[in-house]
Write a structure and sequence with these properties.
Layout (H helix, E strand, L loop, with lengths): L1 H14 L5 E2 L2 H9 L9 H5 L2 E2 L15 H33 L12 E5 L4 E5 L1
Antiparallel strand pairs: 1-2, 3-4
Helix pairs in contact: 2-4
Length: about 130
Amino acid sequence: ERQQCTDFLQELAVLHPELLRATTMRLVLRRFGSIFRNSSGTASTFEMSKPVESIGKFISHAWSTPGWLKNVALMYHTNVSPATVAAFATAICLAMLEFAGVGIPMPLVGPCYLVGDDNNLYQIRI
């Protein structure tokens, strides 16, 4: 099926190069995927695309699927790898700072009480 799609796009590019148009993921995902909320094409939606010589990624969809769900799927697909790398890099940096003895202030969650005398204070979180 993927090969058929690729063959079709290549044939389209050869026979009618003016019809081979594409847009950026940024434009597809803007306004939380509002482009998927209406199946009618307009001049403004057509102008979102530009003529291209090739298409890097082809997105196919069905109008029966809710637009918000398509948007969430695309956001996940395009951002999961960078977000995972950023999360691991942050965790490693925080672990290194903690290991080096640099105290990282953590936000207090819930009530916190200080107990003890002038020389020894202890935090008790509930």
